[in-house]
Amino acid sequence: MSSVVISGDTSGAITLSAPAVSGTNTATLPAATGTVMVSGNMPAFSAYKSSSQSISSGTLTKITFTSEQFDTNNNFASSTFTPTVAGYYQINAMLNSIDASTSATVTAGYIYKNGVRIQDGFYMGSAGKISFGSIVYCNGTTDYIEIYAVVNAVSAGIYGAASDGQSWFNGSLVRAA
């Protein structure tokens, strides 16, 4: 029969020890209040565009990310990240713009939270990559994150390809609330 041993020390830390077949496993909890996170409940995802997306000049457009590399907690669907664990998330995006015209283009990418722009990324020139990111608090119930872009050119869009991840969107919990 196995047992769990709970012990403390003068620092206020509590250690839980559970015997294992090949030895002991130990988890040490800090002397702080809050939620203990382990790899099994820390949402993370990575998605990319598997095909290009046309964008009308000057039109704010939600970017679709149709392929997932991973989604550890099933929080990514329909190009939207909806985390179910409250906390602070590192959100990143990279967009590769395509400009089929010879005119210069200004491309702007945005992180949106609950339909409101919270972070910007810009590229000026003809056809280029922009990357941007931010740490964003999400409440774990109703908050959601999306990526939008604007391309100012006659004929332009956001590049995507079957496997090379030219345009991507990812995020991970960095600290529980």
Give an overview in words.
It contains no helices and 16 strands. With 177 residues, the protein is mainly beta. The protein folds into two domains: 1-33, no CATH class; 39-176, Jelly Rolls (Sandwich), CATH 2.60.120.40. The strands form four sheets. Strands 4, 5, 7, 10, 13, 15 and 16 form a seven-stranded antiparallel beta sheet that branches. A hairpin with a 2-residue loop joins β11 (105-113) and β12 (116-125). The two termini are 36 Å apart. The model has no long low-confidence stretch (mean pLDDT 83).
Stated plainly, the CATH topology of the largest domain is called Jelly Rolls
**Main structural class:** mainly beta
Total beta strands:
16
Shape: elongated
- Major beta-sheet overview: 7 strands, antiparallel
Average pLDDT for all residues: 83
Identify low-pLDDT runs. none
> What oligomerization state is this entry in?
single chain
Q: State the end-to-end distance.
A: 36 Å
Helix content: under 10%
CATH structural architecture of the largest domain: Sandwich
Counting structural domains, the number is 2
Question: β content, as a range?
Answer: over 45%
Q: For the record, what CATH class of the largest domain applies?
A: Mainly Beta
Round the Cα radius of gyration to an integer and report it.
21 Å
**Order of SSEs, N→C?**
EEEEEEEEEEEEEEEE
Q: How many helix segments? A: 0
